[in-house]
Write a structure and sequence with these properties.
By secondary structure, this protein is of the alpha/beta class. 34% of the residues lie in helices and 15% in strands. It has two domains: 12-136, Rossmann fold; 154-193, no CATH class.
């Protein structure tokens, strides 16, 4: 398990958001994986970062298999519901591309930091990576289509102050964290463009 993610040796990175159930959430972006792809693009010098969202790709596995061929690192942001759909992808990587470093993180690992990830996963991130920057270049085309046609999402803050019993934020005892107005306005400009 990883205390602080070692970014050395990472240059050709793929960040994957796998589905969380039988039905895809097409047209929506999962901000956790999007934030991770954006973080790697800004934190790793000269990084070639690809982002692939199973919810928004019609031929997801073929695209995944093609992209993973030339990657040195593949990262997955997972909730507990995504594990069922993420493990086959990790098995594929280890079977066909054993030299590729597999990193998992996300809310599942934050909630269960002591859980043994098994031998398929090289590193586990049990904390949130910085989420200061969301690069709109990573938005899947299906999400862009929705932005052009119906409505768009702009992230104005994180977490929640309510204590709903079913929500992960209550378990984590989170408080709402608003983004600075200048960043929100810059995001609105990106969405409008």
């Amino acid at each position: 398990m990883t205390k602080e993610l070692d970014l050395s040796g990472m240059r050709r990175i793929l960040v994957v958001n796998s589905r969380s159930g039988p039905a895809k959430l097409a047209g929506q972006v999962m901000w956790g994986a999007w934030a991770v792809a954006s973080y790697f693009k800004t934190a790793v010098k000269d990084a070639d970062v690809k982002y692939l969202d199973e919810n928004n790709e019609d031929d997801f596995f073929a695209k995944f298999a093609e992209i993973v061929k030339d990657r040195d690192t593949v990262g997955f942001s997972v909730t507990s519901m995504q594990i069922k759909y993420t493990l086959p992808l990790i098995r594929y990587i280890k079977e066909h591309h054993p030299g590729v470093r597999v990193i998992t993180g996300g809310i599942h690992h934050i909630l269960f930091p002591g859980q043994d990830p098994g031998k398929l996963i090289d590193e586990v991130v049990t904390y949130e990576l910085p989420r200061d920057n969301f690069l709109y270049e990573f938005l899947p085309e299906k999400v862009r289509e929705g932005y052009r046609r119906d409505r768009a999402q702009v992230i104005t803050g994180f977490n929640c102050s309510f204590k709903c019993a079913f929500c992960v934020n209550s378990v984590r005892n989170c408080r709402y964290e608003g983004k600075p107005v200048d960043k929100i306005l810059a995001d609105i400009d990106d969405v409008v463009k």
